[in-house]
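Hey, I was hoping to borrow your eyes for a little while. I've dropped the whole record in just underneath, so have a look:

——
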Amino acid sequence: MKTINIGILGYGVVGVGVAKLLKQKKQLLESRTGAVLNLKTIADIDTTTKREVELGTTALVSDANLVINDPEIDIIVETIGGETIAREFILKALENKKHVVTANKALIAGYGNDLVKVARDNLVDLAFEASVGGCMPIIKSLRESLVANDIKSMSAILNGTCNYILTKISKDGSGFEDALKDAQELGYAEAEPSLDIDGFDTAHKLAILNSLAHGMEINLKDIYVEGIRNITPVDIKLAKEFGYTIKLLAIGKIHEDHVEARVHPTMIPASNPLSYVDKSMNAIAIDADATGQTMLYGHGAGMMPTASAVLSDIADIARNIISGIKRRVPILGYPEDNIKPVPILPMEELYTRYYFRFEAQDHPGVLAKISGILGENNISIKSVHQKGKKRNGKVPVVMISHTAKEAWVQKALKEISKTDSVAGRPVVIRIEDTYQE
């Protein structure tokens, strides 16, 4: 039985999980791959802290170059994270003709186009199943299982931190800060949570999915990103009364000559299966022309779910090595020569429906003035509701619009904010109710 040697760069949570599976599932992996997956060396700056894995013959070293330059190592797993040292190490590994597996979504989203070219030039694989959706096999699904489909749209909950916070607010009526603190205490949120709660982590993942779905260059910079900091228990409660749930969604839709790609809090109907995805779970709904609607659901992070996804990449590459095959499946699902730049729709050109909440002054003519400004900007209102009691001379007014253009909405809200009819900034949440039961 052929031995395939593996090296790990980074021995934190994910690195430990990968090592644990390689050790504990040794016989299962051998029976399924037909090869011995030997964890030869792990590199980490901390070689003294005791981890929960019995390494046996596996060496633990502090110098990553001992892994990258080892001629006996076939596959290198990067679990360091970040976009600096990790990028440097991955480039060196690819140039040394090592296959690379990574869970580093920020790196793939930001530098994936360049890394793919280096991998192609050196005839090696770069695999990143664990970079999106944790244990959900979404990368493999888009690259292989849905190969005969045009992907029409994707809607996804891809950040467990945000989903936990929104669930906490919805179920317990907690304020945002209290829900965030709870998430931090449970380990769902980092001490500095901006990457998650401001939507950037989700945007990284959407950039990767768009490329796989549509054969486009990875494009992170043009994705519209809005986080959940301004979502209040009031809006979540009102959404529920109207039959909606608020989720932080990654939304991707293909049009004839462009792609919609946006991340923001979204109101979705209670009938949409994504509305039932609670706590730290992730899910993605895909609408494709041949399959119709499909959905994946699972843990989007955590030691073992992420390690499981890493092992799926290791196993795929191991099978290729055994068969004497290189780069059997294109890294981004399309041969590199077929990947093209596809423009992302500017956010101001978006057409969708909207939820507005205004703190309106309690005096005659206010509602007419707000409605008038909306109408002057081509925004048609489906329903108007006065919700809650008057406070400090102000009355909460909620409006649900028909389909409108984002540019019209932003112009109207700016005009309304300048009047003496409302206090503070109006709340606006986009509505997606295109899911077909």
Observations:
- Residues 138-299 form a domain with the Dihydrodipicolinate Reductase; domain 2 fold (CATH 3.30.360.10).
- The two ends are 50 Å apart (CA to CA).
- The first helix runs from residue 13 to 24.
- The chain has three domains: 2-135+303-338, 138-299, 347-431.
